[in-house]
Amino acid sequence: xxxxxxxxxxxxxxxxxxxxxxxxxxxxxxxxxxxxxxxxxxxxxxxxxxxxxxxxxxxxxxxxxxxxxxxxxxxxxxxxxxxxxxxxxxxxxxxxxxxxxxxxxxxxxxxxxxxxxxxxxxxxxxxxxxxxxxxxxxxxxxxxxxxxxxxxxxxxxxxxxxxxxxxxxxxxxxxxxxxxxxxxxxxxxxxxxxxxxxxxxxxxx
Length: 205
Description:
Helix content is 33%, strand content 28%. The chain is an alpha/beta fold.
């Protein structure tokens, strides 16, 4: 599976992620390789068994509030344990101020600490969609894609076998042509194949 560096993530403008770097510049070459994110609430309590360092770690109001209410020594110890796992990056949502100990430990470890002004739910939706488009497998096939009763039907065959004629017959019966000749197929989570046409020939034969 391809990877996306934190530097590329930070530089992305079209997806509307609204990210800024707070600390950990040394880790901007870290790679994100999976399109899932994680909120490390249990890890902040010291339980790191189910933490996935390869996922982007999102810190919202609940996580930062919990950290603030821990005894300082416990908070520092749990943070050091979490950050030592070589996470790809941490992202604070809602434009919240980053705790000094979080800035200090991520800078020391070289783990990027980013911030967005989006609400957690909005940001998670935006970044999941962006990462799925950038990281999940995709391919191009020669065929015709038709939407039949809300389900994509991909018609494959050698040139001259009548793929377009078959698709045209379906269109005449009220179904919708999605792509003819060149079909881009992409995997989407959890296990769905999504097909579309090229920008030039989309919905045209």
